[in-house]
Design goal:
The protein has about 160 residues and is α+β, with helices and mostly antiparallel strands. It is built from four helices and seven strands; from the N terminus they run E-H-H-H-E-E-E-E-E-E-H. It has a four-stranded antiparallel sheet. It has a three-stranded antiparallel sheet with strand order 5-6-7.
Length: about 160
C-alpha cells in the first residue's frame, strides 16, 4: 500500500510540487547492467585468449574494439540520462543527448496511451516530442508521473 506522504502517490497534494524531476527507473537499471556486462564480457574474453592470439591482434584492431565498446557505453549513457525537469519557468526535456527547454505555455497536452514506451507532448506549434524521461516500463510509476505532469500543466 502506498503511503499518503510518499511523493510517488498521486493522492499526495505535494506530489506535483516544483521543482520536480522525473527519471526512468527501468532503462537506467538496464543501461547500468548492460554496460557492466559489455565491459566485463570483452575484458573476460581478452583475458581468456592465449598469448599468441593476443600477439596476433594489431593495435588498429584493438582500437576498433575499444571504440565500439565506447560507442555502446555512450548509447547506454544517453538512454540513462533521459529526464524531465519541471520548474516555475517550464519544462526541461532531456532525451538522450538532446535537451529542450519548453515554457509552460508551449505545452498543450501530454499523453501516454496504454502500451506506449513513453509519453508524448503536444506543443502549441503543432509538433509533438517524446518524453523519454518517463518510461512506460516503469508501470504505475510512469502513470503517476504523467498524472503529475498533467496536474502541473493544468496549473500553468
Amino acid at each position: 500500500m502506498t503511503s499518503p506522504d510518499n511523493p510517488d502517490n498521486p493522492d499526495n497534494p505535494d506530489s506535483a510540487a516544483l521543482p520536480r524531476t522525473w527519471r526512468p527507473r527501468g532503462p537506467r537499471i538496464a543501461a547500468l547492467v548492460f554496460g557492466v556486462v559489455l565491459v566485463l564480457t570483452f575484458a573476460g574474453l581478452w583475458i581468456s585468449f592465449p598469448q599468441e592470439t593476443k600477439d596476433a591482434v594489431s593495435p588498429l584492431q584493438r582500437a576498433t574494439v575499444i571504440v565500439f565498446i565506447g560507442l555502446g557505453l555512450l548509447l547506454l549513457n544517453g538512454l540513462a540520462r533521459s529526464r524531465v525537469v519541471a520548474d516555475e519557468t517550464g519544462l526541461e526535456v532531456v532525451n538522450g543527448y538532446r535537451k529542450r527547454h519548453l515554457e509552460w505555455a508551449q505545452v498543450v497536452s501530454v499523453h501516454m496511451p496504454p502500451g506506449a514506451p513513453w509519453p508524448t507532448m503536444d506543443l502549441d506549434d503543432g509538433t509533438t516530442i517524446s518524453v523519454m524521461g518517463i518510461h512506460g516500463s516503469d508501470g504505475v510509476r510512469a502513470r503517476t508521473a504523467v498524472a503529475e505532469l498533467k496536474t502541473l500543466l493544468n496549473r500553468a
